[in-house]
Amino acid sequence: MQTLAQLLADADLPDSPTAALDAELILAHVLRKPRSFLHTWPEYVLDPQRLELFQGLIERRRAGEPVAYLLGAQGFWSLDLQVSDATLIPRPDTERLVELALELGPLGRARVLDMGTGTGAVALALASERRYWSIMATDLVPAAVELAEVNRKRLGLENVQLKTSDWFAALEHESFDLVVSNPPYISADDPHLRCGDVRYEPATALVSGADGLDAIRHIVSQAPDYLHTDGWLLLEHGWQQADAVVALLVDRGFQLTRSWQDLGGQYRISGGQWRG
Q: Which residues, including other chains, have CB under 8 Å from residue 202's CB and lie 6 or more apart?
């Protein structure tokens, strides 16, 4: 029988900067132990049932399936979120959207809208930092809304309400101090859709028309009808789309428009303030 150390050495995942980490995360998941257990007890031997589970998950990872889907979980901000193939996998760069929302949002009580919430990552991160904000989180996909509600309940965040909505469609007569979104922004013919983790993620959370801007155009055009005076709209987008998104914001009449860099130094978030 192979020890934990041998299993990790023989995992044979495709060569990548995260290959060793991927194997450790999968093995720790199978054992239902922290990763530190693998190094504290390298001579531990898996029982046959868990060995079969580990080998099956490694094979799926070797085929390209994202680790987050294999584990059913992904860390974001300070939260551990349940994930599924009904949603986009939360990514570290989107934490910048949370930072900017906290920086630009009202200091006191506020109504906040997170559209295309997926796992609930952005809404729940904001709710955990601003317990006095009332946050509405929406998604077009009912399965995503159900998953976000599971995460909300597990985290005990009572200041978040979930709703199924096609962008603003189900929000008639609602108004907000801050609107944030990480919408689909990839063009339909982008070759990256056939690479890496995104092959397994839902196309509805990724693709938005010929140039990737259809969803952003829709949000920018309608957001003023749902924003209080001096409210902010913040949008995550592709690394080459900042100028186009800012132009859309300016054309719609937003003030103080600008773009912000993500963790990798790319301009990936743009926004503006609505003065009415």
A: 85, 86, 87, 88, 141
Asked, for residue 189, whether it belongs to a domain, the answer is: yes
Domain of residue 255: give its range.
74-274
Alpha helices in 35-136 (DSSP H): 36-40, 48-62, 67-71, 95-104, 121-129
Total structural domains within the chain: 2
Band of pLDDT at residue 170, cut at 50, 70 and 90: very high
pLDDT digits over 93-140, tens only? 999 999 999 999 999 999 999 999 999 999 999 999 999 999 999 999
Instruction: Verify that 206 and 123 share a domain, yes or no.
Output: yes
Residue 191 has a pLDDT of 64
The Cα-based distances of 235 to 13, 25, 219 in angstroms read 35, 32, 9
Residue 142 phi, psi dihedral angles, 5° rounding: -55, -35
